[in-house]
Design brief:
eight-stranded antiparallel β-barrel; 2 domains; 16 strands; Porin
Length: about 375
């Protein structure tokens, strides 16, 4: 036999999509709980890029194989395809938890680009024509954990795709036999998707996408005719059932309606104002300053200038000896004495507030009429 028209089918191809589904399931199960800011509500997306078809066997039925055998031709060959165009457009809904559901329209086109199994096809008129496919898919997408500014996502889809071999023609090695396939067939289709989304900060809700897709359909059934190139008489007719696997790489845009603007970067927090406290103690029933008290007040005045305090609070206290009214007045005299010393040391008077608390806030709780040195005090707070 001088020529071949069909390649033996490699059954391992059928399991590759199942392997992809298994990988997707494992990836989804392993996705961490921390998530990106997910799409919520209605969105529209589209993409375009390269369509890549593998070399495919013709898959002739018994009628075509028998007719070719009678004419002395074999039945093994593959058809190759050049890289082509792939495009998708989809409408979807984000559930706000990482899940998205969408309906997609898809289109792909690849010109034929050589063959094998029939030596000399290209030298004898070559092979021409193209494969186009179009259809509708329903997809379930999962947005994964955000990595920097990028959100990876994966998805699976199922639907219906029509495969069309438009004007596919090839001439045998000896130039005597011509094959023609000009038919279309719709079949169940499925796909696996993996991509990356890059949010565009200048347009809330808009993201640039880059993705890979593996799309496959059940084998289409296409009418094929083999004829004598000189007379046009039919040599064999039947159906071809080529494998239908497509890989594509696309760039696109996705726009989520009603997306909130990206949160503005908050301004850096102001440095906390340092607060320092000083305590000046007094002798019993006295409001004058001891030498140690003057040293503490001088330190407070120095700190006030160093940290540029805007407010100095001076609060006077007394112990529980004497009447409440007397201790109230005594605590005020003590506070005024300390304030006067601060002013003498250069602290602006307008920045000082004086409070007299009497015996109401003791450092040490005591019974009435108890002399307690730690309760006879003035507290200085720098703010």
């Amino acid at each position: 036999m001088t020529d071949a028209w069909i390649m033996p089918f490699d059954s391992t191809h059928r399991f590759r999509p199942l392997l992809g589904v298994a990988i997707f399931g494992a990836w989804l199960a392993a996705a961490p709980a921390a998530r990106a800011q997910f799409t919520e509500g209605f969105y529209i997306a589209g993409g375009a890029g390269f369509s890549l078809l593998p070399n495919t066997g013709l898959g002739l039925d018994s009628s075509a194989v028998t007719g070719l055998a009678r004419a002395g031709y074999g039945n093994e060959a593959t058809v190759g395809f050049a890289p082509g165009f792939a495009g998708v457009i989809s409408l979807g809904w984000g559930f706000g938890n990482g899940l998205r559901a969408e309906v997609e329209g898809t289109y792909r086109s690849n010109d034929t680009d050589g063959s094998s199994g029939v030596a000399g096809w290209a030298a004898n008129g070559g092979i021409s024509g193209r494969q186009e496919s179009w259809g509708v898919m329903a997809n379930l997408m999962v947005d994964l954990v955000q990595i920097g500014p990028v959100t990876p996502y994966v998805g699976v889809g199922a639907g219906y795709v029509t495969t069309d071999w438009a004007g596919v023609r090839g001439v045998s090695q000896n130039g005597a036999l011509r094959m023609t396939v000009d038919d279309s067939s719709g079949r169940f289709a499925y796909q696996i998707i993996a991509g990356l989304a890059f949010p565009l900060s200048f347009a809330p809700g808009l993201a640039l996408t880059a993705e890979y897709r593996f799309l496959a359909t059940l084998q289409p059934s296409l009418q094929v005719r083999f004829e004598n190139t000189a007379t046009g008489a039919a040599v064999a007719t039947g159906t071809a059932e080529p494998d239908s696997y497509n890989q594509s790489v696309m760039l696109g845009l996705r726009y989520a309606f009603g997306a909130a603007p990206a949160a503005a970067t908050p301004p850096p927090a102001a440095a906390p104002v340092q607060q320092r406290s000083f305590i000046v103690f007094f002798d019993w029933n006295r409001a004058d300053l001891t030498e140690r008290a003057r040293q503490i007040i001088a330190e407070a005045a120095q700190q006030s200038r160093t940290q540029r305090s805007t407010r100095v609070e001076v609060a006077g206290h007394a112990d529980r000896t004497g009447t409440v009214q007397y201790n109230q007045a005594l605590s005020r005299r003590r506070a005024e004495t300390v304030a006067a010393e601060l002013v003498r040391l250069g602290v602006p008077q307008e920045g000082i507030t004086i409070t007299a608390l009497g015996e109401s806030q003791p450092l040490v709780a005591t019974p009435d009429e108890t002399r307690e040195p730690q309760n006879r005090r003035v507290e200085i707070v720098l703010r």
